[in-house]
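Hi P.,

Sorry for the delay on this. The queue was packed all week, but I finally got your sequence through. Input first:
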Amino acid sequence: MPVNTVVRYALRAMIAVADGQVAGPLRAQDIAAGERISAKYLERILGRLVQAGLVVALRGPGGGYVLARSAAEITLQQIVGAAGGGLVSVPCLGPDCEKSCELAAACRARPVWSELHRLTDGFLTATTLAAICSGRGRKRIAPLRSSAVRKEPLRR
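Then the structure:
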């Protein structure tokens, strides 16, 4: 389930806009320079975010990009969706699975992919831009504890 470049850059741009909003609208050139993203590529991504209603482009002197609503009201799911990312990463979760796969009804792997989809969707929906900007988003992911890793080989 790779996260594509557009999704990664869209999130970085949203974080930059949210962080910079206190000082006023943020110009695309400033976001691009700060995030080390091609300005032309970023403009296309910002266009998607505008179309999705996540940011507003203000024209004229002092113009730039601002959030369309509070960072607490913008979810990671909305950002991923605006960037064109999707959660259906295996064909058997698509709407045509029952028609296209003769194993669909008896497949024991399909519930695994379905649960992964459900958990991922829940995480993306529950994680807000405000939580990401404040660092609270990191607390949702439990770090791997060294005690959970077996250091000695299994004995038979």
